[in-house]
Amino acid sequence: MEHPPLTQALIAAFPGLSAELQKAARYVIDNPRDVALLSMREQARRAGVQPATMMRLAKQNGYEGYDEVRTLYADAMRALTGGFATKAGHHARLQQLEGEEALAANLFTAIHGQIQALTSPNVLRTITVAARAIAEARRVYCLGLRASHPVAFQMHYILSLIGEKSVLLDGIAGTGPDAIRYAEPQDVLFVASVLPYTRQTLDLATYAKERGMRIVALTDSAVSPLARLADHPLLAATESPGFYHTMTPIFALAEVLAVLIAGHGGEDTLRALKSLDDYHTDFQTHAAERTPVPAANGIKAR
């Protein structure tokens, strides 16, 4: 659902909501399909609030009850290509499966849908604008802690192949983030974090904002703390049928972003990659594929 009905209104009102209403609002923002499909009680359970809280959220947005909100979202879903019945039938078939194979199938299906959602025109426009901002930066500071560390490292690694302006905020003895003290307003902070957000990540992003840096944030919700700090928030779903949230869509988003950034480098990128190839050849970095040696007298060489 590319334009969920209440998303923009809920994002605008989010800072002024109570803690319980924020939980309910976040659920509606992050799970528009569930708003149409699930009962109010089930949505409240998943959001971690009482059903009355969902009702208060609806009334605060000008509706008599939550059923009106569900109808609004159901109508939006029926307008989607592919249709409500197709998606609901596919979900029902998956629910009939049992055991580990069913869980694996659910995981792959969820990840596929989350990555497919990143191909919507609005998301693609956001990615290209963010790529241009990073490409034009004097220096790029890459930050991702805990589960988000591989995302930041992959961005830093790809950028390091095509130039020298990437700085990974990671290091031994807890000194990794110290390098950001050299940052200037013409620099960009590339940062990734998803729920539950790492406190140090948010502190460093706030520090970067105060120094006038632009922030490109990969996160999981329009109301995440990082999204509210970022100049270029890039959002990807992380919910999973398993016990642990998936980082695959966020990781894919970072890889696509890095490739677009490389494309902005033109001849500079080509020269950097040629230099990299020469370096790897000199040091025989990669194991070459071995060609089998013909055996003598019909005996296989070992």
Automatic annotation (TrEMBL):
HTH rpiR-type domain mapped to chain residues: 4-80
Key words, A-Z: DNA-binding, Transcription, Transcription regulation
Record Pfam families: SIS
UniProt domain SIS: residue ranges: 130-267
Membrane-spanning ranges: none
Name of protein: MurR/RpiR family transcriptional regulator
Species of the source: Roseibium aestuarii
